[in-house]
Write a structure and sequence with these properties.
Layout (H helix, E strand, L loop, with lengths): L11 H33 L5 H24 L1
């Protein structure tokens, strides 16, 4: 049996895969950026986690920008 299609012409499973890949990209990117910032803050012996916050924030903004570009493309 074939799956029904959404109004955009996609199968519902395609939509789930698309959004789950966004979630994985978001979690993975923020995790790697957070780890790198944490290690750099420890290496430089900073009391305030400046690199941790900066890396996570820049990564989050970058991923949101990339996602909004991809969503608007269609």
């Amino acid at each position: 049996m074939e799956q029904e299609r959404t109004p955009t012409g996609r199968k519902p499973s395609d939509t789930y895969i698309r959004y789950s890949s966004f979630a994985a990209q978001l979690l993975g990117g923020i995790g790697i950026a957070g780890y790198a910032g944490y290690r750099l803050d420890r290496y430089l012996q900073l009391k305030f986690p400046a690199f941790l916050l900066t890396f996570v924030l820049v990564t989050f903004i970058g991923i949101l920008y990339q996602t909004s570009k991809n969503l608007n493309k269609e």
